[in-house]
Predict the structure.
Amino acid sequence: MIAEILATGDEIRSGALVDSNSAHIARALEEAGVFVQRHVCVGDDMEMLAQILTDMGARADIAVVTGGLGPTLDDLTAEAVARAAGVELALDQTALDAIEAFFEKRGRTMTASNRKQAFLPAGSERLDNPYGTAPGFRLKIGRCTFFFMPGVPFEMTRMLDQQVLPRIERLLGGNRLMCRVQTISTFGLTESATGERVAELAQRFPDLQLGLRAKFPEIQVKLYARGRDGDHLQRILTDATDWVTAQLGDKVFALDESSMEAVVGRLLTEQDATVAAAESCTGGLISHLLTNVAGSSRYFLFSGVTYANRAKIDLLGVLPETLERFGAVSEETAREMAMGARRAGGATFGIATSGIAGPDGGTADKPVGTVCIGLATPEGAAGRRFYFPFGERSRNKTIFAMTALELLRRELIGRGAQPFER
Amino acid sequence: MIAEILATGDEIRSGALVDSNSAHIARALEEAGVFVQRHVCVGDDMEMLAQILTDMGARADIAVVTGGLGPTLDDLTAEAVARAAGVELALDQTALDAIEAFFEKRGRTMTASNRKQAFLPAGSERLDNPYGTAPGFRLKIGRCTFFFMPGVPFEMTRMLDQQVLPRIERLLGGNRLMCRVQTISTFGLTESATGERVAELAQRFPDLQLGLRAKFPEIQVKLYARGRDGDHLQRILTDATDWVTAQLGDKVFALDESSMEAVVGRLLTEQDATVAAAESCTGGLISHLLTNVAGSSRYFLFSGVTYANRAKIDLLGVLPETLERFGAVSEETAREMAMGARRAGGATFGIATSGIAGPDGGTADKPVGTVCIGLATPEGAAGRRFYFPFGERSRNKTIFAMTALELLRRELIGRGAQPFER
C-alpha cells in the first residue's frame, strides 16, 4: 500500500505556517504499516488542486488531505474534489444538522457561509467531526482512496485517529505491514564516523533500514524494521541494537530517546547523588538543561553563573592566584570552580565550564571554541580542556554544556573521562 | 517567476522529523518576490528523486532542494540530479580542498565517505558551504534553475542567505516584484487581543497584507508590502508601523526582529548598567537567554540558580524567616532573592524568579504556572506575583523568564511594572 499526503492552504504554501500535520499523518500511516511515498503542499488554487488530486489518484493507493474545508471563499477543497472526480456537490443533511447543532450548543449564530460546509462531493462517505464545523469525507478518485480532513491540528489529529485510521486498517486487511523503530542516541562521534562504524549493518541485518539523524550535538542511529510478524521484528531489532551498541560502545547514552540531561538525572537519582554547577561560558545552559527534566529538584541543587572573575572568587572560592597565573579559561580554574560549586551547593558532584563561546574573545592560544571543564567528585577534582570547531556562539554553548554533562555521565557509569574519539 | 521546493530524506518522508526548512525557504522566496507554487517531500529513493526532479524541471522556473548531500550511502541527491540532467558526477577539486580544509582546521581525520561529497554533477556551479562538509550546487534541469543545499537547518539557512538568494535576485533582474516586510515584536497581549487592536489596518492601509505570528511567548505583527516602487513601499510601511505601534503601545519591544534579551542588553549598555539574577523555577534560562547575546559579558555579571532553600539563604542572603513565613514561592522571597543577586553580583539591577513550573508541586493556593518575580534597582526592590495557564514545564519556564526580562525592560524604559493587559 502506497500513500501520499497533501497539505493545502496559502499559509503553508507561503511559509507563514510550518506544516506539522503532514509529519503527524506520515508517522501514523507508517506505524500502521502503510508506506508514505510523497508529501505535497499547494495553496488555495482550484486548478492546481484539481490537477494534483487527479495525479495522486493515478499514483497512490491511499491519500490523506488536510485543509480547505472551512467556511470562507478560499476554502476550495470540496469543489476541487468534485472536479477531479467528475461529480457534483450535494447537500448532506446529516452534516448540516451537525453544523447547526454545533452552533446551537455554543450559543452562537450559524452564518450562511457555514452552510457551504455541508455540501460534499456526490458519492463520498462523510467523516464526522465533533470538534469543529467542517465534516471530512472519503472518496475514490482514480485508483486511490482519499481521506479529506480540516487543517486545524486539534480537529485533524482526532479525526485521523477516530475516523481515518480505522478505515485504513480495514482497507489493509491481511495485507498489513508493521513498522517498528529503535532509536540509539550517541554523543562523541561525528555523523560520518558513526556511519562507518555501523556500515556493516546492511549485510548483517538485511531486513533492517538504517537512518542517521544529526540532532546537534547528538547523533541518533535509527533502525527501522518492517514486516508482518511483530515478534520477529522485535527480535531482529533487539539483536541489531545489541550489535550497534557493541560497535559504538559507551558513546551510546540512551536507547529510549531520552535526552542527555534526563539520562544524567536518572543516574544521579539511582545513585542517590546530587550535582551543583559553576558556569562561565555556558551562561546557565547546563542548569537550564538539567532543570528541564521534571523532578530535577531532587538532584540539582545549585548553579553559579559566574561571568565575572570577581564572582568566581567571591562565590566559588577560586583563588585569585589561579586566575592570575593560568587565566579564567584554564583547566586549573575550571577545576577550582567545580570544587567551589560542589562545596557551595553541598552536592555530591560539581561540574564547571570556562571557555570562549565567541564571537569575540579568542586568542591564538585559546581560540573561540576552547572550553575547560571541571569535574569535582567525592574522590577529587580535575579540569580538562577541549576545542570545538563550530565557531558559532549558540552551538558552542550547546556542545560545551553537553560535554560537561557527558563527563558527569561517564563518571556516573564508571567509564573515566574520554568522551571523544576519532 | 514560479518556484517549487523539494525536501528529501526518509526522516521527513516518514514523519520522524517535521520539515521546517520548506517553510523557511518559502518565506524567503516570497519576500524576494518569487511565487512559491508547490512543496514536495520524498524519501531517499533514487528513481523517485530523479523522476521528481525531471517533473519539476518541466514545471517551475526556480526550484530549491534540501537534503541528501551528506557523506552516507542514503545521501543520493547528487547522483539523482546527474540522472535527471543526463550528466556525470565529476570531482570538484575546490570542493575537495574545502572539505579537506574543514577537517584539518578541526584537527579531525577526513573519511573516504566525505570524499564523495566533492563529486558534483558536471556543468553545475558549486555553492560554497563554510558551515559543513557538503557543498551545494546550482544546475538547470529542463527549463528550471535548481539550487541544491544540505538539509541541516544551520547550514541551509546560512547558505540560502549567502549563496542562493543573491543568485535568485540576479535571475529576477527587472522582473522583480519587491516585497518589503516589517516585523513588530510584542509581548504581553494574546494573539486575538493583538489582532483586535490592529483589526482596522486593512481599511487604513489597503495595500498592505497583515500577518500575526505566535512565536511563543511573543506575538509578531508582520506587515507585507508588495510592488515595484521600493521608496513608496517603504513609506507605506513606515506609516503603518507608526499606526500599529500607537495601537499596541509599550507592548512593542522591537521593530528589528531583536529578541527580548537583545533589547534588554542594548538598554543596559546604553545606560551603562549591569544585571545579576537569582533563578529558582527558571533554572538558569534567564542567564542562558541573556548570555546568548554576543558581548553580554559587558552587562551580565552573575546568576545564582538556587533550587534549594539552603542556597537561597547562604548565597543570596534570603532570610530564613521570610522562607518560613511566606514560602519559597512568594513576592517577599523573590524580592529578597533579587536584592541578594544585586548585592552578590555587585550589579545595578537584580532580577529573581521563584515559582512552580510543574508538572508537580502545585497547590490550590499556588497552582502550577504561578511565579513570583523580584526586581531590585538602585532605588529599592519589589516582588510581584503572576499566574500563567500554560500548564507545561518548558512553556512555563519560558514565559516566567520572558516576564522577568520584560519587567527589567519596563524599568529601563521608565514604564513601571504592568506587563500584561487583557
